[in-house]
Structures are given as structure tokens and as C-alpha cells.
Amino acid sequence: MTAAAGVALVARLMLVALFMPSSVIDKTFGFDHAVRQAQEVFKPRVLGVGAILVGLIVELGCSLGVLTGVADRACAFVIAGFCMLTAILYKRFWAQGDFWADPDGHGRTLFWDFMKNLSLAGAFLLIVVGTDGSGLAPFLHSPLASSQPYRSHS
User: Fold this and answer.
1) DSSP letters for 17-72
2) Is the pTM of this model over 0.85?
3) With the C-alpha atoms ordered 4, 5, 6, 12, is the resulting torsion angle positive or negative?
4) Mean pLDDT (whole number) for 42-59
5) Residue closest to 115 by CA, chosen among 93, 143, 148
6) For labelling, which of 7, 33, 34, 109 has a CA lying 20 to 30 Å from the CA of 47?
7) Rounded mean pLDDT, 118-144
């Protein structure tokens, strides 16, 4: 493995570490707790369970895709959407009522979590389009193709 491929692998490992194994393990071994959290947005238990199962599939399946390079751009695109969606649904800093009133309030904490989710989504979108945007056309032409992240560029 070249140094460049090694750096790409480490970068991808760092990107997916939040999801796999961390969140996957947390949701698996704390399934009922995760469902209760999901029910903050999806009130009926069946919807909460469905949301957690979808989350597990995205976090595990798409993380593996990003790591292995198998349909990695499509997987990164899905994870980016997942990050944005969870930011909007679960990091609702604007709904707390204390964002401007209390610098130590719950709204301010959720704001930073919201921004971290959006930043992480941006990082995954860089896998989709590349740092210069040149990967957008290949992604649109063949969304399930691999970006070949570990190939030698010599």
C-alpha cells in the first residue's frame, strides 16, 4: 500500500469511526434506549424501531462501503444525507428557547452538535465530488461505481 493510499484509508477510518463501530454498537446493545430517543421525533414505537433499523443499515452498510471503496461515493452520499437529516431532526437548537439567553444552555450545546453534523456531511460529500468538484460528473454518470480510493497514482 502506498503512503497516499494509507492516508486515504486513515482519513476514511476517521470519518466512519463515529458510525462504525461506535454508534452501531451503541444502537445494538442499547436498542431500547435508541428507540426511545428516536421516539422524540417518531412517536409510535414502530416508527422509532424502523428509524433505528434504517440508521443501523446506513451506519454499518455505508460505512463499510466508504472503507472498502465499494460504491463508496453512493455510500458517502447517503451518509451525508443521514448526517444532515439527523441534524435537522435531533439537533433542534432553535426549538430550545435558550440559544440567545443562556450561553451554557441546551440550545447552544445542540447548535454545536448541529454544526458538527453538517460539517461531517460536508466531509462525506468530498468523497462524492472530490476536493475540486471533478468527481460530480462521474458520480452522476455511475453512482454505484467505486472511486478507487486505494489505487496507486504513479
Assistant:
1) TIIIIIIHHHHHHTHHHHHHHHTTTS-SHHHHHHHHHHHHHIIIIIHHHHHH-TTH
2) yes
3) positive
4) 96
5) 93
6) 109
7) 96
CA-to-CA separations, 148 to 115, 120, 125, in angstroms, rounded: 30, 21, 16
How many C-beta neighbours within 10 Å does residue 18 have? 16
Nearest by Cα to 99 from 91, 107, 87: 107
DSSP state of 139: H
Question: Taking Cα atoms as reference points, which of 129, 120, 109, 135 lies closest to residue 81?
Answer: 120
Cell of 29: 446493545
| Residue 96 φ/ψ, nearest 5 degrees | -80, -30
Inter-CA distances, 16 with 37, 94, 96, Å: 22, 28, 29
pLDDT tens digits along 76-124: 999 999 999 999 999 999 998 888 888 888 889 999 999 999 999 999 9
Sign of CA dihedral 136, 138, 143, 145: negative
Burial of 71 (0-12, 13-18, 19+ CB in 10 A): buried
The three three-digit cell numbers of residue 7, written as one number: 492516508
